[in-house]
Amino acid sequence: MNDDAEVVANHDGPIPVLAVSGSGGASSDGGSKRDRLKKSLPGSRLTDKFQSAGTSFSGSGLSIQDRLFAKFKWRAKRRNRILQQIVPGEGAESVEAEPETRSSRYINRPGFSLPLMTANFRRFNARVGVVFVAQNHLLRLLTWQKASHTLSFFVIYSFVCLNPYLLAILPLVGILFFLLVPAYLTRHPPPPASIAVLGNTQYSISGPPLAPARTIKPAPEISKDFFRNMRDLQNLMDDFSTVHDSMLTTITPITNFSNEPLSSTVFLLLFVVACLLFLVSHLLPWRFITLISGWIAIALGHPSVQDIVFENVYKSRIRPVSATARSRLDSWIESDIIMDSPPETREVEIFELQRRKGSFGVSEWESWIFSPSAWEPMAPARIAGERVKGTRFFEDVQASIGWEWGGKKWELDLGSTEWVEERLIVGVEVEIEGERWVYDIATDGSEKEDTDMAGGRRGQWRRRRWVRMVRRQATGEVAVSQK
Q: The pTM is what?
């Protein structure tokens, strides 16, 4: 690697960590853990360890980096063997899993490995400095650290909002002024300001290159830049966790229907707004809306503006009105959003099947089974020679998963003709009076005839339909709260 290569790292102060008040217990727990970690291993102790390691290894053939990470690698291999016994491998997955349809570069990704995880983290941390440098520059730009830079960004943003086609030019301008021009100035540096050549102070672009080209290399391990990247990475992880927890605390109660009237109101309002925007969005001046919104966002980044807005606007006007507005919204929701609808109910059926007992000359029937199938003569399972499925006793019939009985007992369906016609069942005889049995009709050559009752030709099976109401069952915390 070129020795003149440059390491990209955030050499300024640490990027500030976001702090959201009232973000819940997760943030407080994370803060206490970080405090305990800082107390247990302060930075001075870590520095002393590396200094002592450098003193002890100064006379040996291996460097500090090789000695330390050889030890870390041995420990990582040992932990990896333990994890392989705990974490199931890829072979433990179900054999009947659906085949992977993504690209082969994702199919052949390695499994979890602690040494590989450690090596990848070291590589990532050595190269992630450019992200933190960009983040730091963006924060300085939006917080008015240099007013001239922020005002320049303000003007460029205004031009882009008023002329959106300039968005196609911005990437090219960025490459020119932030990549190519600095690289050229590195190869052709200007003369020192203290030297005047014949009174000419202008910068000349002619002549051969005077300096080597600028290249970027990863930050060496056990270096200041490496630990700067680790510092900024830990702050970035804390920022993400803080924003994630605050968003969950704010958005989840409104959108997860734990408070159904409130979530229903939000759904109704968003639906109405979406319908209105679908009709009138082409009439809105989106350029000026984007322009004014950006101006407000950029102006709010100024510390003086933040103080004015917080003291004069939020405390004096917004905070007193927010409680009143929330109470009015709650009263409107309570009066207009009605959520006392009964649970979903359905009617379920079961067929009582009886089989002829004894010879065909005897009109005695024995209870055979209770089945969800009518077991009609043309049923596919019956034609295939399968056995009828069900339960022997009425008490063993249970409601489906997620449902519970709504009625106290089963009721006999007296409209046998209706459900026979609805299912287009053929080859049966319907009993109009009595217990409403539906008999098989014996066909010539297949079953013997039963002519004992009204001269009919009845086969081996008969069935009748029972019905009962079920209602949707609440699960989890809702079921516990309703008890």
A: 0.59
Closest C-alpha to 444, from 429, 430, 427: 427
Identify whether the C-beta of residue 405 lies closer than 8 Å to the C-beta of residue 382. no
Distance CA 66, CA 447 (A): 90
Is 70 exceeded by the pLDDT of residue 27?
no
Per DSSP, 98 falls in state P
341/438 Cα distance (integer angstroms): 38
Mode of pairing for the β-strands spanning 6-7 and 216-217: parallel
HSE value, Cβ hemisphere, 13 Å, CA-based, for 169: 8
Handedness of CA 17, 20, 23, 25 (dihedral sign): positive
CA atoms within 13 A on the CB side of 471: 8
Token pair of 41 as six digits: 């291993």
Contact 410, 348 (CB under 8 A): no
3-state secondary structure of 426: coil
Contacts 24+ apart (CB under 8 A), 387-390: 388/353, 390/353
pLDDT digits (tens, 9 = 90+) for 248-306: 999 999 999 888 888 988 999 999 999 999 999 999 999 999 999 999 999 999 988 88
- Could you tell me how far CA 350 lies from the centroid of its own chain? 42
Question: Could you tell me what percent of the chain has a pLDDT over 90?
Answer: 35
Helices (H), 10-128: 25-40, 43-56, 64-86, 104-107, 114-127
Distances (CA, A) of 140 to 145, 147, 149, 154, 156: 5, 10, 9, 14, 17
- The CA R_g of the chain, rounded to the nearest whole Å, is 39
| 151 and 175 Cβ atoms separated by less than 8 Å | no
CA 117 to chain centre: 23
Q: pLDDT tens digits for 153-164?
A: 999 999 999 999
Give per-residue pLDDT as tens, 105-123.
556 778 888 999 999 999 9
> Strand ranges (DSSP E) for 257-375?
345-357, 364-371
Q: Which of 450, 14, 4 is nearest to 231 (CA)?
A: 14
* Cα 258 to chain centroid, rounded: 19
> In whole angstroms, how far apart are CA 216 and each of 123, 127, 208, 228, 365?
14, 9, 23, 17, 92
The region that residue 210 occupies, defined by phi over 0 for left and psi between -120 and 50 for alpha, beta otherwise, is: alpha
The more confident residue out of 221 and 97 is 221
3-state secondary structure of 226: helix
CA pair distance 194, 196, nearest whole angstrom: 7
Listed in sequence order, the residues at least 6 apart from 121 whose beta carbon sits closer than 8 Å to its beta carbon are none
What pLDDT, on the 0 to 100 scale, is given for residue 308?
86
H or E segment and range at residue 477 = helix 477-482
CA atoms within 13 Å, Cβ hemisphere of 420:
22
